[in-house]
Amino acid sequence: MNEREKKEQRSLPPCPNPQCSQSRVVRNGSHRGRPRYCCRTCKTYFGETQGTPMYDLKTPAAKVAQALLVVMRRGSLRAAEEITGHTYETISAWLKRAAAHAEALTQVLASDVHLSQVEIDEFWSFVQKKRGQLASRTLTLTQTIKHRDEHGRLLSVEICAMLGTTMEPTGTVHVERLNGALRDRLNALTRKTHAFAKRDATFDALVGLQLFDHNFHRAHRALRLPGGDDRHRYHHRSPAMALGLTDHLWSFHELLTTRVPITP
Ligand SMILES: [Zn+2]
Fold it and tell me: What pTM value is reported for the model?
């Protein structure tokens, strides 16, 4: 490949085939006004948005990203409907696409993470008129017993093994904090309110995208490092940055336009 060809390759989307040895993408006409491409090496034909949640959507990615941001920050689809002007059903469809993509992307990025300890906590909420109780997990590995005096003051914490051998002193403080953050941010999870998700799929998508938001999008104060650049005192990091999965804070626009490798 000469310099001119290399420069041209940089302006074109890369070949989406993970098995492709060398991406040699050329333009290949258009479909419904959108450009299509072909990789000369592996003969994969693809569109600009293939493998992303934007595939086959007419709305620009920036507007979809904006609507999703409103859902995540305001905690409800109704709020996003009112603010952005898109219908509830449309935003719900975008939310499900984005959540499924966020999960696939997280799988790809986090495939090399080795876990030494996992915190599990039960987490429940109601969907549609409090008929179904979701995600009630009863798996218990260790039991934490808090001993208190008659005034309710904490005296000591006892941790004993319920299943398997005794582990390193553990607790559920991190997962409890994450559950707390989710309850703060999503109306459907807030305690003692009338809000609830109408369908399981919407509930799962809301929680899924909120987890992506938490891990990749938001900078966490406890993870910041001193010594940013000339203008910033701190280098702000998300949990994914702290784990070395990515080197920057993601945005919803980036999520919507980043392709997960597809097989032809
Ligand atoms: Zn290829």
Answer: 0.71
